[in-house]
């Protein structure tokens, strides 16, 4: 059963609907004790990364998240929270992955946000992408991207001249920059893979 | 590589999908949620729903449609129709919509584009523009094409973009439902 960290950053209707479609039970995490009820944890998030980090800190759940041994999946801004630092709000993040979240704006010519279906290259045989073909398309909406680190990258995406981490994994921590809950059948497959990890 | 998107656009009237020609002679085309699911199975990249009868009183019908679509469909979608203020947009976002489309409200109050983009990001804001050729020039039309304005389409699109519209949903009333293809002349000018 998947627990969704409820810290007030963005709507989660689409995520819970996707979990319902694949038949995975879920509930909300509001307190430290709630973590014990679930085998898997998702940290969602949309909007401003700096503001989202502040909200997460206000819940008092950060230390518990850092100590988790259960599988944890960050989605979009939820993934960015797992990095060391974000240029959005120049804010320190959870530092689970020693990489930075950077702004597309000054670095590329193409339109920002990066929005739409983009193909990814699967790396390091990540279990997240079991039964998902290489170069599959996923749905992205973001203005900030995460640096690619050879050791942790699980999938790479290229937009304009930048190749960034579309997914990463270290031990029990996973993150995806795209929205699996909006990425059709393959997105649902990824959520199913995570729930079975 | 970023893919080109194919986006079916469904006009919804009183909870049913309708199709017309040049914005009139509407006929029933089925249940929007069922159609949405079919389109998604056939490979559509996104969907757009325009509730052409949405009013303040019927707000709940639109919200119910958004929730039903979000439950059943696994691709992004836009909802439009009767969105006049920030609160309308926020309710639809929380009901599962990925983007909102505004049309008449943006022309009446262009600041709404800035406000929505600032609060929810430009990716959330689609400005729909209904255009018709009058004496050789394209003009913006409102209220489902019933009212011609004096605003030239090209100028309005530039303004909407500069205010924070992430995307423009451009409908040529002259081509709508005629099966004669897109208005490529106009598209070329705007692009």
What does this structure look like?
The complex is a heterodimer of chains A (197) and B (191). Chain A is of the alpha/beta class and 197 residues long. Chain A has a single domain, classed as Class I glutamine amidotransferase (GATase) domain (Rossmann fold). Chain A contains 5 helices and 13 strands. In chain A, the strands form 2 sheets. Chain A has a 9-stranded mixed sheet. A 4-stranded mixed sheet of chain A has the order 6-5-7-10, with helices on one face. The longest helix of chain A is centred in the last third of the chain and has 13 residues. The termini of chain A are close together. In chain A, 47% of the residues are buried. The model of chain A has no long low-confidence stretch (mean pLDDT 96). The two termini of chain B are 21 Å apart. The model of chain B has no long low-confidence stretch (mean pLDDT 92). In chain B, strand 5, helix 3 and strand 6 form a beta-alpha-beta unit. By secondary structure, chain B is of the alpha/beta class. In chain B, strands 1, 2, 3, 4, 5, 6, 7, 8, 9 and 10 form a 10-stranded mixed sheet that branches. Chains A and B meet through helix 1, strand 8, strand 9 and helix 5 of A and helix 2 of B. Chain A: It comes from Sphingobacterium thermophilum. Chain A: InterPro entries: Class_I_gatase-like, GATASE, Imidazole-glycPsynth_HisH. Chain A: Its EC number is 4.3.2.10, 3.5.1.2. Chain A: Its main location: cytoplasm. Chain A: This is Imidazole glycerol phosphate synthase subunit HisH.
Task: Please give a quick description of this structure.
Chain A: InterPro entries: Class_I_gatase-like, GATASE, Imidazole-glycPsynth_HisH. Chain A is of the alpha/beta class and 197 residues long. Chain A has helices at residues 13-21, 49-59, 62-67, 77-80, 184-196; strands at residues 2-5, 26-29, 40-43, 72-75, 85-86, 91-92, 100-103, 114-122, 137-142, 144-146, 153-159, 162-170, 173-176.
């Amino acid at each position: 059963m998947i627990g969704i960290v409820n810290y007030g950053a963005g709507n989660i209707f689409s995520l819970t609907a996707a979990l319902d479609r694949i038949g995975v039970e879920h509930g909300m995490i509001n307190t430290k004790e709630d973590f014990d009820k679930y085998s898997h944890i998702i940290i969602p998030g949309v909007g401003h990364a700096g503001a989202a980090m502040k909200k997460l800190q206000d819940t008092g759940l950060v230390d518990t998240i850092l100590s988790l041994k259960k599988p944890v999946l960050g989605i979009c801004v939820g993934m960015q929270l797992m990095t060391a630092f974000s240029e959005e709000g120049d804010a320190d993040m959870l530092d689970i992955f020693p990489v930075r979240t950077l702004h597309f704006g000054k670095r590329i010519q193409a339109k920002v946000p990066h929005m739409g279906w983009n193909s990814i290259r699967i790396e390091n045989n990540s279990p997240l992408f079991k039964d998902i073909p290489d170069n599959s398309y996923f749905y992205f909406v973001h203005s900030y991207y995460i640096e690619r680190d050879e050791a942790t990258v699980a999938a790479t995406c290229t937009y304009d001249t930048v190749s960034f981490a579309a997914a990463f994994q270290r031990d029990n921590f996973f993150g995806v920059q795209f929205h699996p809950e909006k990425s059709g059948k393959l997105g649902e497959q990824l959520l199913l893979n995570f729930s079975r990890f | 590589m970023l893919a080109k998107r194919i986006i079916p656009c469904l006009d919804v009237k009183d909870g049913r999908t309708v199709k017309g020609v040049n914005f009139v002679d509407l006929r029933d085309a089925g249940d929007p949620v069922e159609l949405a699911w079919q389109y998604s199975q056939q490979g559509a990249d996104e969907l757009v729903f325009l509730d052409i009868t949405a009013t303040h009183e019927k707000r709940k019908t639109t919200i119910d449609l958004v929730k039903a679509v979000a439950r059943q469909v696994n691709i992004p979608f836009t909802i439009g129709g009767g969105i006049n203020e920030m609160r309308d947009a926020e309710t639809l976002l929380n009901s599962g919509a990925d983007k909102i489309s505004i049309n008449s409200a943006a022309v009446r109050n262009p600041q709404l584009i800035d406000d929505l983009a600032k609060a929810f990001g430009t990716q959330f804001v689609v400005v729909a523009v209904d255009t018709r050729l009058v004496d050789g020039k394209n003009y913006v039309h409102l209220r489902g094409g019933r009212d011609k304005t004096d605003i030239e389409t090209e100028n309005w699109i530039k303004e909407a973009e500069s205010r924070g519209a992430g995307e423009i949903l451009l409908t040529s009333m002259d081509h709508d439902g005629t099966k004669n293809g897109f208005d490529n002349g106009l598209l070329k000018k705007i692009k």
